[in-house]
Design brief:
There is one protein chain. By secondary structure, the chain is an alpha+beta fold. It has a single domain, classed as Gcn5-related N-acetyltransferase (GNAT) (Aminopeptidase), CATH 3.40.630.30. Helix content is 29%, strand content 33%. It has an eight-stranded mixed beta sheet, sandwiched between helices. The chain is globular, with a radius of gyration of 16 Å. Bound molecules: coenzyme A. The site of coenzyme A has 22 residues, from strand 5, helix 4 and helix 5. Coenzyme A binds next to strand 5, helix 4 and helix 5.
Length: 173
C-alpha cells in the first residue's frame, strides 16, 4: 500500500524500517498518549516483533508515515467485529521532531478515506485521552466530530483518565 501525500507518504512497513522505527518510537512523550501495548522503552526487539507481524498482517491495516524516505511514525486502524464490523478504530503517532507540521492531519484524512473505501465502512472512530490536546486538534482538523466524553474509562501511567470519543461518519450513498 502506498498513498503519496503532500507532506508524507503513507506506506507499508518494511523490515528495513527497524532503525528509524526504534529511533522515533522510543519516546515517553509518544507513549504517554498511546495504549500500553505500545512499548516503552521501545527496543530493537520490540521493533522487530512489530515489523515481522506487519509482514504477515492480512488485511493490511497498519502503515508507516514516511517523510523523505524514512519511517517517522505510524497510522493504522482496527476493524471491529460482529454487528460493529462496519466500524474501525484509528490510531497514529509521529516522531517528535516532525510535530506541528500538519503531517498527522493529512495522513489521518487519507487513511480514513482509504479505510472506508477499502473495507466498506460507515464509521471510523478514535479515543484520545482527554488531556491529548494535539490529537484532539488533529481529529478536529480532519473532520472528526466529538461525540462523547468517556469519564474515567482508562488508566495510563497509574492515573485514571477520561477518553474522548471522536468519529468520522462516511457519507451515505
Ligand atoms: C498527535 C500527533 C500525532 C500530532 O501530529 P502532528 O503532525 O504534529 O499534528 P498536526 O501538525 O497535523 O496538528 C497538530 C495540531 O495540534 C496543535 N497542538 C500541538 N500541541 C498543542 C498543545 N499543547 N496545545 C494546543 N494545541 C496543540 C498544533 O498547533 C496543531 O494545530 P494547528 O494546526 O491548529 O496549529 C503527535 O503529536 C504525536 O505523535 N503525539 C503522540 C502520540 C499521540 O498522541 N497519538 C494519538 C493518540 S490518540
Amino acid at each position: 500500500m502506498r498513498l503519496t501525500l503532500s507532506r508524507s507518504v503513507v506506506r507499508s512497513w518494511a523490515l528495513t524500517d527497524l532503525a528509524a522505527l526504534v529511533e522515533h518510537a522510543n519516546n515517553h512523550r509518544i507513549w504517554i498518549n498511546l495504549r500500553d501495548r505500545f512499548p516503552h522503552p521501545y527496543t530493537r526487539h520490540d521493533g522487530l516483533t512489530f515489523l515481522r507481524a506487519m509482514r504477515k498482517a492480512s488485511p493490511e491495516t497498519v502503515f508507516a508515515i514516511d517523510v523523505a524516505g524514512e519511517a517517522v511514525g505510524g497510522i493504522g486502524f482496527m476493524l471491529q467485529h460482529d454487528v460493529e464490523r462496519v466500524s474501525a478504530e484509528i490510531g497514529y503517532w509521529l516522531g517528535e521532531r516532525f510535530w506541528n507540521r500538519g503531517i498527522a492531519t493529512e495522513a489521518l484524512v487519507a487513511v480514513t478515506s482509504y479505510a472506508i473505501a477499502q473495507h466498506g465502512l460507515t464509521r471510523v472512530f478514535a479515543l484520545p485521552f482527554a488531556f491529548n490536546v494535539a490529537s484532539c486538534r488533529v481529529l478536529d482538523k480532519a473532520g472528526y466530530v466529538l461525540e462523547a466524553r468517556l469519564h474515567r474509562s482508562a488508566i495510563k501511567d497509574g492515573t485514571i483518565v477520561d477518553q474522548l470519543q471522536y468519529a468520522f461518519v462516511a457519507p451515505t450513498r
